[in-house]
Amino acid sequence: MAYGSLSRAAELLLNVREPDDNWKVAITLFGNFAGFYAYVTRGKSEDSWPYARPSPGCIFDRNSSVLDLFDPAKLYVIAAQLTLLAEGLGLHDEALRWAGRANLADFDLGMHSMMIPYRVAAHVAGGRFSDALGESWGAYAGGTAALSADQRAVQFSLHTGKVTAVTICFSLASVRVRRGTAEAEHVSVLLEDQLRRLAASDPDPFWAAVVDAIHQIATGGRNWRTLYETGLEWEKSEATQLGIMYRLAAMMNAAPREAFHLTVCSFQKQAIPWLGDTPYDVVVIPFLRSYWRWAFEQYSFNFSAPPRTARELDDALSVPGEAGLRNALKVVSRSLGIALTDKYREYLSNGDC
To answer: Is 238 left (phi over 0), alpha (psi -120 to 50) or beta?
Structure first.
């Protein structure tokens, strides 16, 4: 409820068309307070916040010294603050909504890169794959074009472009399990063509490999073990994102027993922390839940007592989110007769592995 009030206040303030001095004071204070709440919800200490802390009623302060702090160039930060705050509270749909409101033209390279993962997740969740790839490539290209800028910001931008390509791949896999191989192949062809055009003059072999991984995720055609080993080779050269893409392609082309091990070993949140909480929650978890319904339908003969397994999977997936996914994986492991390691049991019991 408190977040809802804060979000509505932001909407009202940002929608004012004829701002006066009172508005300038209010939005300056609001921006500071939204930043404070975003800061502490992400695990930082209140005492380390370098600015004024919120206190009851202070939003109504009309002190002229606050007016002197008003900076119209900083208004863009409010959307980013609400994005981070919503994510910190586990309100991932709200995080996507506020990221969509952010005007990236106003952002410096570092802030721009920070918002891109949310915007890419929002695009693919809405089926806008071309827009998602455009933003992903834009982050990467922004890093390559800013070689004289702060090198940490440059590397973050390059990294963001590659990380968000993984989000796009998970969403493409979702298309295949939910709407069929033909639709996934259609999306894949569009993405492959778009990426070839974008990366035509880029020397990094990463993007040619992404084109191949996209094709394998959508249509298959290569042995799952070959795809898995391709991913391992890329990981050896520190291309971690390609490793995950090829592991995903391997799972899409594997039988359920191998797919179970890939799910638990490769796609837990702690295995891909760089993907971000919101993309993981709104893209990866829904994909994995859909995948196991699809895998059971495709390979029901691999499972013991298919009618009972079908009922148990339905019951397991009636629980939302990752908790329901863990329940489903318990059903899968029992039905496939998979011996669980202690590490597997720990994850399936409480998600901490």
So the answer is: left
Q: Which of 106, 126, 149 is the last residue of a domain?
A: 106
**Residue where a domain terminates, one of 84, 106, 128:** 106
Provide the residue range defining the domain that includes 9.
1-106
**Angle, CA 37 vertex, CA 31 and CA 39 arms, to 5°:** 100
User: How many structural domains are present in the chain?
Assistant: 2
What mean pLDDT is reported for the chain? 89
Assess contact for 276 and 122: CB atoms under 8 A: no
pLDDT tens figures, 176-194: 999 999 999 999 999 999 9
Q: Considering the entire predicted model, what is its pTM?
A: 0.90
Q: Is residue 340 part of a domain?
A: yes
144 domain-assigned: no
161 occurs within a structural domain: no
pLDDT (tens digit, 9 = 90+) per residue, 68-93?
A: 788 877 787 888 889 999 999 999 99
The rounded distance, in Å, linking the Cα atoms of 133 and 120 is: 8
Identify whether 311 is part of a domain: yes
pLDDT per position as a tens digit, 205-260: 999 999 999 999 999 888 999 999 999 999 999 899 999 999 999 999 999 999 99
